[in-house]
From TrEMBL:
Residues 29-49 are annotated as: Disordered. It holds the Pfam family YNCE. Keywords: Signal. The lineage of its organism: Bacteria, Bacillati, Actinomycetota, Actinomycetes, Micromonosporales. This is YNCE-like beta-propeller domain-containing protein. PROSITE patterns: PROKAR_LIPOPROTEIN. Transmembrane segments: none annotated. InterPro entries: Host-pathogen_enzymatic-act, N2O_reductase_N, WD40/YVTN_repeat-like_dom_sf, YNCE-like_beta-prop, YVTN_b-propeller_repeat. The keyword Metal-binding does not apply. It comes from the Bacteria. Residues 96-388 form the YNCE-like beta-propeller domain.
Length: 405
C-alpha cells in the first residue's frame, strides 16, 4: 500500500464471546466516512516482521537534557501543574475547550463556564489533536490526512492559516523546546521539526506500525512511543534523535495508546485498548512490562493536579478508572450514565473537571474529579478526538493534548 493509502480497516461482528474480523482496504480517495481510522480493531503489521528486541538494556542518563528547564521538585515531574498555577504567558488567555472533530473536519470551541459550543471552525481534513506549543503561545490542530497543522492564537482564540506538514497524526515538543516532534503514523516516521515554522530537521524511519503517542523521561533524555497497530513500544534518544530500544508488548493482539510517566519519573504506563488495561514498566531499563486491567478499551491517561492519581479512559465501556500512585492500585471506576466512548482530553485549570471527547457519540463529557459524576454532555461534531482544555497550569508543554511541566 503506498503513501497515499490509509491503513487496512477491519469490520467486526461479535458472536457471543468471539469476534469475527473482516478486512477491507481503505484509500484516502475513498468517501470521507471510509477514510476514518478504526483504531478499535487490531491491524496487520506493516513494518519489520521481526523487530530487534532491545528490552532490558539500561540507557538511563542522570544529567538532564541541556536547555531543559530544571524540575521544580525532583520527586514530582508535575509539581508545576498545581491547581490554578497559570504562568504569566497564559494567565490572560480565555478559558476554552478546543475539540477537533475528526469526522466533520471542524474544531468545536466550548465555553467551559456555560458548557456551550460558542464557535465551530473548519480545518483541513481529519483533525486528530489540538496541541499546545512548548512556549504555550500557539495551539496546533493536527490534520493528518489533510497534511497540515492549523495554528490557534490562545490569547484571542483566532485560527490562523494552515501550515503544510506531512501526516501530522500527533505532535510533541522536546523538553528543551528545540524541536517539534511529529508522529507521522501512516508514513512510519518520527520527524523532528522547527517548533515555530514546522520545517523538517531530521526524520527517523520506524519499522513499527501506527507510531502515535509518547511521553518524555524525567531527565528529558529519551521518549517512549507506542505503535498502535503492531503492538510495540519504541525508545528514542532525544538528543541524538535515534531509536535505542524496541519491543513488542505481550499478549495476542496488544494495541498500545497513550503513554504517561509517573510523577517520580520511575514508572511508565501505557494504555492498551485491545488488552483493556495498562502496561507498567521501568523506562530506564526498558524491561518487560507487567499488566494492570482497568476496563474495556483503555485509551487516555491524565495526571491529577495534585500528582496523586491518574485517570484512565476506558473507551470501550464508557468508564474512567482512577489509579492511586502511592499504592499502584485502582481506587475507583466512574461509569458514564448511559454509556459512551471517553477518549482524549484534559483537566480544567483547577483540576475539578475532567474533559473528555466521546469519540463515537459526537459529544464531549465533563466529569467531576471529586466523584466522577457527569456534569455535562455537550453535542459537538462527528468523531471528536484529542480535545485541549486551555489554559493549563505549568511552565512549558511537551505536546499532545497538554503534557505540561
Amino acid at each position: 500500500m503506498n503513501r497515499s493509502s490509509r491503513y487496512l480497516k477491519f469490520g467486526a461482528v461479535a458472536l457471543g464471546t468471539s469476534l469475527v474480523l473482516a478486512a477491507a482496504c481503505t484509500d484516502r480517495s475513498a468517501t470521507p466516512q471510509a477514510q476514518h481510522r478504526m483504531p478499535d480493531m487490531p491491524m496487520p503489521t506493516r513494518g519489520s516482521p521481526h523487530p530487534v528486541e532491545t528490552a532490558g538494556t539500561n540507557t538511563a542518563v542522570g544529567a538532564p537534557l541541556p536547555g531543559m528547564p530544571p524540575l521544580l521538585d525532583p520527586n514530582d515531574l508535575y509539581a508545576a501543574d498545581r491547581p490554578g498555577n497559570l504562568s504569566d504567558a497564559v494567565k490572560n488567555d480565555p478559558f476554552r475547550v478546543y475539540v477537533p472533530n475528526n469526522g466533520s473536519d471542524t474544531v468545536s470551541v466550548i465555553d467551559p463556564t456555560t458548557y456551550k459550543v460558542i464557535d465551530t471552525v473548519r480545518v483541513p481534513h481529519s483533525p486528530e489533536h489540538v496541541v499546545p506549543s512548548w512556549d504555550l503561545r500557539t495551539l496546533w490542530v493536527n490534520s493528518d490526512q489533510g497534511n497540515a497543522v492549523t495554528p490557534i492564537d490562545p490569547a484571542t482564540g483566532k485560527f490562523g492559516d494552515p501550515v503544510p506538514v506531512d501526516d501530522p497524526y500527533n505532535l510533541y515538543f522536546t523538553p528543551d523546546g528545540k524541536y517539534a516532534v511529529v508522529m507521522a503514523e501512516a508514513a512510519h516516521q518520527i520527524v523532528f521539526r522547527d517548533p515555530h515554522t514546522m520545517a523538517p530537521v531530521k526524520t527517523i524511519d520506524v519499522t513499527c506500525d501506527g507510531v502515535n503517542h509518547a511521553d518524555f523521561s524525567a531527565d528529558g533524555r529519551y521518549l517512549i512511543a507506542s505503535c498502535e497497530f503492531s503492538g510495540e513500544l519504541l525508545k528514542v534518544d532525544v538528543a541524538n534523535q535515534k531509536i535505542i530500544g524496541q519491543q513488542r508488548l505481550p499478549g495476542e493482539n496488544p494495541m498500545p495508546q497513550d503513554v504517561k510517566v509517573s510523577p517520580d519519573g520511575k514508572t511508565w504506563y501505557v494504555a492498551d485498548m485491545q488488552s483493556s488495561g495498562l502496561w507498567v514498566l521501568d523506562g530506564d531499563t526498558f524491561g518487560k512490562p507487567t499488566f494492570l486491567p482497568t476496563g474495556q478499551g483503555a485509551h487516555g491517561l491524565y495526571i491529577s493536579r495534585d500528582s496523586t492519581k491518574m485517570y484512565i479512559t476506558n473507551r470501550g465501556e464508557g468508564s474512567v478508572s482512577v489509579l492511586d500512585f502511592a499504592t499502584g492500585k485502582l481506587t475507583a471506576k466512574w461509569q458514564i450514565p448511559g454509556g459512551g466512548s471517553p477518549d482524549m482530553g484534559g483537566l480544567s485549570p483547577d483540576g475539578t473537571v475532567l474533559w473528555l471527547s466521546g469519540r463515537y457519540n459526537s459529544v464531549v463529557y465533563a466529569l467531576s474529579t471529586d466523584d466522577g459524576h457527569l456534569i455535562a454532555k455537550i453535542p459537538v461534531g462527528s468523531e471528536p478526538h484529542g480535545l485541549c482544555v486551555w489554559p493549563q497550569p505549568g511552565r512549558y508543554s511537551l505536546g499532545h493534548t497538554g503534557i505540561l511541566r
